[in-house]
Amino acid sequence: MLPHLPLLLRTAILHLLHLSPQSPYLDLKTALIVNVLRVYINHPNPKSISETKDFLNKFPSIKGRIWVSTYSIPVPTSDTQTAIKSLFSTAINALAQDGGVYKGQMPQVSAVEGEWTGYRANAGPESRLPKGLTERELYAELMKEVKGKTTVLYFHGGAYWLMDPVTHRPTTKTLAKVTGGRVFSVRYRLAPENPFPAAVVDGLVAYLGLLYPDQDAFHESIPPNEIVFAGDSAGGNLCLSLLQLILHLHRTGQRQILWNGKMVDIPLPAGIAVNSPWLDVTHSSPSCIKNAPFDYLPEPSLLKAAEAKRPPCGIWPSTPRRSHIYVADELLMHPLVSVVLAKSWEGAPPVYICTGWELLADEDKYIAKKMWEEGVRVRFEEYEGMPHCFGLIFPGLKEARRCFDGWGGFIKSVVEGEGEQGSRFLTIKAGTLEEAERKGEEVSQDKEEVIRRRMEGQLKGERVVGEGVAKL
């Protein structure tokens, strides 16, 4: 921390004098952490992709009030693998808004591992999992404490190339506690080794594996009206990409698939609940600049400059080369990648979206309003002064506890049929947690054509401001 003492001192002085943008909304400790995180994430001399993955994948042991049971959905039959590849190839081409044909290779359809997570009420902070139990026996112990019928299908964040269900255990444990249910946290394949659509393929396999389990599965068949897709950041993108895929299949009469020898439905889940979802992978929204003082994520120009200094390794740059870690260049604006460009959300189940005053705020607000205009029941919560995924990063904040109450409460309500039935748009005031109601039409003023123009400009090295264009 010694090299960061000047930054810490400057942050503290400005905060105590109420001269920083964060000071009216964050306590000093949180403001210090946000500013230091920003430096670490946007390091002037970044490590290679491989080194960064290795550094962040030092998984802690399991302890505390949590049950964890690792389970793998088996490799589907060869006929199912062919059916899933065909489904994705057809959908990617059908949804392409430029009329182009995707010529990339479809990923293999493989086994999908995940962690069943439950809340262990009678354990202590240092409790370990019982020794000598198999994963199936751990799952049985987990299920003894499940009080409700909610199953959360969870997709972790990490820009599609970082993190793991292990890093998100505190989050999945808390969601299990608030909902009274269980969480299946998916270990989907990561980029750059496995670019789009590998993660979405794994998401679909995980969902079908919950609905139509193998005879040796730990769980019994779970009805779709008891499953909610949830995720944070890139995991929120994955939730909405998977939802958009299923909506497309329903619109085009392709709602069945051959799954391990049987024709089965691909139904909609009970709901979608996403926290700080990343919906525009080009980072073209105005909030990517104007909200930079409140977020630890670096604004696009700084991120681009840092990435240019990243040393090469065995997995990046990729072969063939592409500019984006997650996806081929020609698909950056595809609606299954940048879901902010999805044409329609009509027919979607209820959706919860939470955001802060972060870089991704504008795209989150736009999607919430668009869904509401198209008849989707939406619960939208914007938290004053809060950075990206604040509920996960700063669990001690009362805003974080309120976030999990809203997030988990929504998940439970759409499964159990309780609570509000209409849409709500709220601003949660910093400090007081006062809820200020907003009208849906006031949440975002963005138009689809403007969003598209901004994204096209960003990819050309330009930034669209209003109707004008400025070089980056």
UniProtKB/TrEMBL annotation:
Residues 1-22 form the signal peptide. GO terms for molecular function: hydrolase activity. Keywords: Hydrolase, Signal. PROSITE patterns: LIPASE_GDXG_HIS, LIPASE_GDXG_SER. The keyword Signal applies. InterPro entries: AB_hydrolase_3 (IPR013094), AB_hydrolase_fold (IPR029058), GDXG_lipolytic_enzyme (IPR050300), Lipase_GDXG_HIS_AS (IPR002168), Lipase_GDXG_put_SER_AS (IPR033140). Residues 152-390 form the Alpha/beta hydrolase fold-3 domain. The active site is at S233. PANTHER family: AB HYDROLASE SUPERFAMILY PROTEIN C4A8.06C, PUTATIVE (AFU_ORTHOLOGUE AFUA_3G11560)-RELATED. Belongs to the 'GDXG' lipolytic enzyme family. This is Alpha/beta hydrolase fold-domain-containing protein.
